[in-house]
Amino acid sequence: MSSPVPSATFQYYGDRYWNSINMVEVELRRRAADQVGQSWGQKLLEWNGRPFQKAIALNCGNGWVERELVRSGVVASAIGLDISEPLLATARESAAAEGLDIEYHCVDTNTASFDFPGVDLVVNFAAMHHVARVDRVMREFCRLLPPDGAFMSWDYIGPHRNQYPEHQWAAIERLNNTLPSGMRKKLAYPHLATMLADDPTEAIHSELIMPTMRRYFHLEHVRYLGGALAYEILCFNDPFFDGNDHSPLVQRILDADAAHMANDPEANTLFAYVLARPDKAALDNTAQLDRWSREEDEREAAAAANGGQYYPSTSVAQRYYPNPGTPPSTFRRIGGKVKRAMRRVGLPV
């Protein structure tokens, strides 16, 4: 069972993402927790009513998520899983320096055996959108967790590989054009061939995260965080990171983003925060499980035979890149900075 893995040079961390702007981060927390100031971890603890015993941090990178959870008392201990040994080495060193009860395993999430007794929390922070075998992995977590266990997800759920549909890209362009000329983003539609070369796992099945989660979990707390307009306009837009106060303009962008999301929250958001319980009954329908497994196998095999591309090009991509194999100058220039998987300071945010 093959599956795409990140390229060796892929960079998970960066800056100048939209939530590197403090007021954006504050607003995202408010949207997630329904109040100002509470972190996603604090909301998770409040929702559960008691601390967890052991958490799995999916695709943990340098380990900041599980360290924060253990340090703050949300969980007593944790297990970090990632495919990158260099990142895991950093995570191990940092956890040991703080004396935190965290262990690490180098695994490919798509094929891993999640045999970890005592786990009562699975944390997906900007990780599942890098998973090809979304159905298999969520099914395994449903099996692993006890009935009163929890699945926490803060992730990018927008269009796969940031291939925005026509109506969304048009809305981004309209909002961008209302900004003062010096603050406008030099928009460049995400170039699929470049993304496949830089990281074939980036937002690989982001659109499947919510529907697949609903197959195996009871979603008890769902909050859509937006970003359909604000994310593309603010990320890597240098004037907003020049050290000056652009709060009124940022607020105007966030308000427009929220208004856009209000029309159809799940369809018009890029990010969501979800707290859920496993639906053990979902594991009883073996015929349905077999169908979902076959569908996943067929989908991955078809993409492997198609150079990693799963879906037809959007109309916007066809307009921007009539020769899809040749990256435009913008993408050649910024190269690896066009990443949608930043973990520490943003969402894949």
CATH fold call: Rossmann fold
Oligomeric grouping of the chains:
single chain
Terminal CA distance: 28 Å
Domains counted in the coordinates: how many?
Answer: 1
- Overall, the morphology is globular
Any idea of the CATH class?
Answer: Alpha Beta
Helical percentage: 25-40%
What order do the SSEs take from the amino end to the carboxyl end, as H and E?
Answer: HHEHEHEEHEHHHEHHEHHH
The overall strand count is 7
What is the spatial order of strands in the main beta sheet?
Answer: 3-2-1-4-5-7-6
CATH superfamily: Vaccinia Virus protein VP39
**Proportion of strand residues:** 5-15%
* Helix segment tally: 13
The structure class reads: alpha/beta
Give the helices and strands, then pairings.
Layout (H helix, E strand, L loop, with lengths): L21 H12 L6 H9 L3 E6 L6 H8 L3 E8 L2 H14 L3 E5 L14 E5 L8 H11 L5 E7 L9 H12 L14 H7 L10 H8 E10 L3 H5 L12 H16 L8 E8 L7 H19 L10 H6 L8 H6 L15
Parallel strand pairs: 1-2, 1-4, 2-3, 4-5
Antiparallel strand pairs: 5-7, 6-7
Helix pairs in contact: 5-8
Structural notes for this entry:
- The chain has 349 residues and is α/β, with parallel strands linked by helices.
- The chain is 38% helix and 14% strand.
- Strands 3-2-1-4-5-7-6 form a 7-stranded mixed beta sheet.
- It is globular, with a radius of gyration of 20 Å.
Task: Name the features.
about 350 residues; alpha/beta; Rossmann fold; about 40% helix; about 15% strand
Quick structural overview:
This protein has helices spanning about 20-35, 40-50, 65-70, 85-100, 135-145, 165-175, 190-200, 210-215, 230-235, 245-260, 285-305, 315-320, 330-335, and strands at about 50-55, 75-80, 100-105, 120-125, 150-155, 215-225, 270-280. The protein is an alpha/beta fold.
